[in-house]
Amino acid sequence: MTAHTPHTPPFRDPHLPFAKRIDDLLSRLTLDEKIGFLHQFVPAVERLDIPAFRTGQEALHGVAWMGPATVFPQAVGLGATWNTDLVRRVGEAVSKETRAMRARDDRVGLNVWSPTVNLLRHPLWGRNEEGYSEDPRLTSAIATAYTHGLRGEHPTYWRTAPVLKHWLAHNNETGRDVTSSSVRPRVLHEYDLRAFRDTVEAGAVAGVMPAYNLVNGRPNHVSPYLREHLRTWTDEDLLVCSDAGAPSNLVDSEHYFDTHEEATAAALLAGVDSFTDHGTDGSKITARVRGALEQGLLTESDVDTAVRRQLSVRFRLGEFDPRDDPHAGTGEFDTPAHRALAQEAAEQAVVLLKNDGGLLPLAEDARIAVVGLLADECKLDWYSGTLIHRSTPLEGLYERFGAERVEFAEGVDRVRFRTAAGTFLQVPAADDAEDRVRGAEGALDPATLTGRTDLPPLTTDATGTEFALMEWGEGVLTLRAPDGRYLSVAEDGCLRASADQPGGWIVQETFRLEPHENGHLLKHLGTGRHVCVAADGVKVAEANPEIFEVIITERGEDAVRRAAAEADVVVVVAGNDPHINGRETEDRTTLRLPQHQERLLHAARAANPHTVLALVSAYPYAFDSARLPAALWTAHGGQAAGTALARVLAGDVSPAGRLPQTWYADDADLPDLLDYDVIGSRQTYLYFEGTPLFPFGHGLSYASFAYADLKAKAQSASVSVSFTVTNTGAMAADEVAQLYLRAVDPALPRPRRELAALDRVRLEPGERRELSFEVPLSAFGFWDVHQGHWRREPGPYELLAGASSEDVRLRTTVILDGEASAPRPVLSRGLEAADFDEQSSIEIVDRTKAAGDAVTPVEGRAGELVYRDCDFGKGVSEVSVTVAGGGAVDVSLDGGPVLASLTPETPTPGPYDYTTVTAGILAEGVRDVHLRLRGPLRLAHVVFSG
């Protein structure tokens, strides 16, 4: 190491603590230079020999967007492994490839925006593929493992600096930048914060990214929770990076602030340290910061605080100590070990949903029909790197069983499009060329994948081209030419067979057939325009759409029936394309399989009862499992997906993936997409009281396992639990042992059961192993809105061990001490409006723009609130409410008649202009308070006195 000398500034001295070095560097930066640090793309400070820097490098399941890299299973697939050691090794490989790629291309960043720890509360969320689980404990366990892998094990220098996404309660794409998630305090503490907190406290997180949505009426980018919760969980300087465009949304779409200077100042003061806005152009953000400073909305000290946090990350990444950085020479990229790990992860992610009659594993001499739209596909998603290697289910089965034993039928409809003039759409011949539009230096730019313009547009002729038509649900379809290229529309509006796959921020490869007169219009969904035939080629336009006659030359189900009838067993590979009908910016509308794929499944099953459904998808589906002898699910498994699935089907690997979220049987089981009250509306396996298609934690094996000897003992800070698991089957296999807990006789709604611990263990035939867990006493607690803190009820708690949340093999009870329940101390604390026990037709909103919650009735309805066990002591004679707006608050006790109706004399001028209204009321003892809210008002607080 080089010691500090008179010619070496202290910030360059590796002997000094980072904090002192950052102080020194901050003191040398001018205000303008510090302001420049606040944009995502930080310019170089040449006079101090400080290079440019940028926050953000996508690395959800491999290095994304920067060209070829090892592609691991989607995040939800990694969650399905229930294997923290595996996921840590995946994170380690991804961080090593990030370093290796940066050595070749300095646009690859070391501040990685991964993992996503948003809970998979609702299976129709379009970004389901990005999260790990609906359960906060499993999510935090997997996320912690991934961040430890990304960070590396060196005590000082980090290999990469992970940023958790997306803070907070973000689980819908529909109106994602303008909708508010109404999150009651119990849900906030027990559910949404928990996944973030456990991962941050584990010590390998560099920061978080706020989500686009609002929570309780306030945009996440000005959330007081960043200060009140996040920054209290660690002594590290956490870097908060905005999501792309979100700073401008504060004014432009959310209209939360009147000016961008005001919005930028509020975000910076709330804790946002790096503004991701306007691409590489930092001038707008820096101008807003200067404006905020000039208006007195910010001080230089506020800017320093944000810059300090960013510098802390840069120092930890070794940027200022290149000779001491142990990761500087990392060159591990696409190594045999990384390829093997990608396959291992894909194999461990496969979940065997059903296996009646032992149809699986497939017999060695079986004749196999492989059918379906995903059978010969290796799909990528928005956050994938470019494949170096690929394997499809068909290729995997060819390799495993031999091509002579495998018959393939994709099941697409073959169609021709006849114009009104009697000609047909034709793909002209063209020389091969580069397939994608590339950014500088050859890296894929996912925002500009708009198709090629170096190919001739479609034309028409007397015979035309036969296209493969694939319907992906809700009438959305893709069309593929015989050479394998998809029809796409480029910026010039011309239709070409130019895309390897659907993709891009705005997908240009999807269409819809619309009945019109005696034919169909072909609508291009990317532009919203119809296809027309012009003298200079086929294009999309606003006017003169062509009316096509769609001639079906072969139906996909006919090809499937032929292949199925000749086989011993049929494997139907179904699922989704990650860029269509469920992705970032687009939620799904149903759990059902697309009709096209349901027809193929029915055709296969009718032709051959020995039919296996292999679902390859980014999210759960609802399907008729009763008539299927066997079914599996895997997320899109990256480069080794096909090999992994084939090895599981063949029995080379016993499946041991487990569902990381509930698979519901029907859309009717789902709450509204925007209903975030998992307690009140009984969501996720924690509260759901119906019968799921497959429960949380479910997954079968080719082996069998016996559980025994469950023991539990309460200690001073934990409950020690142990039990044995024995492989009673004939082959070596993994078992995922799951431990759940539940309060036996809770005084208020608690989870039916909640995951307390897990362990994925490999056991040889006949092998028996004792598993031991320490469950902290804090895991038995809940957020007590009566007292405003965590509380553990004294009494009995059941511990349940087994193979899923519903497959419980053993149970025992422990008696725990705790804090006894007490009535609400309303005389000393009053009632915070959001601290209700029950509600209907109520939304939680922001009390002020800076902090606090209030409640308001859903527009057009009267809202009802219930506060249980309010202690009025010897009696009160008055009630006062703090309200804004107009309307009325009706007060009653124990569901009886209205005792007081409180209405402002005149509506307050704005939603944050509060007034206090008082009325007489007589109450004593412990009573339940019922409030009925009528009209457009916000209720913040209730006080009883007298």
What can you tell me about this protein's structure?
The protein is an alpha+beta fold and about 950 residues long. Among the domains are: about 350-410 and about 555-655, Glycoside hydrolase family 3 C-terminal domain (Rossmann fold, 3-Layer(aba) Sandwich); about 420-545, Trefoil (Acidic Fibroblast Growth Factor, subunit A); about 705-815, Immunoglobulins (Immunoglobulin-like, Sandwich), CATH 2.60.40.10; about 825-945, Jelly Rolls (Sandwich), CATH 2.60.120. Helices cover about 20% and strands about 30% of the residues. A 6-stranded mixed β-sheet has the order 10-27-26-25-11-12, sandwiched between helices. The protein has a 5-stranded antiparallel β-sheet with strand order 38-41-46-43-44, with no helix packed on it. Strand 11, helix 13 (about 395-400) and strand 12 (about 405-410) form a beta-alpha-beta unit. The longest helix is centred in the first third of the chain and has 21 residues, at about 85-105. It is globular, with a radius of gyration of 30 Å.
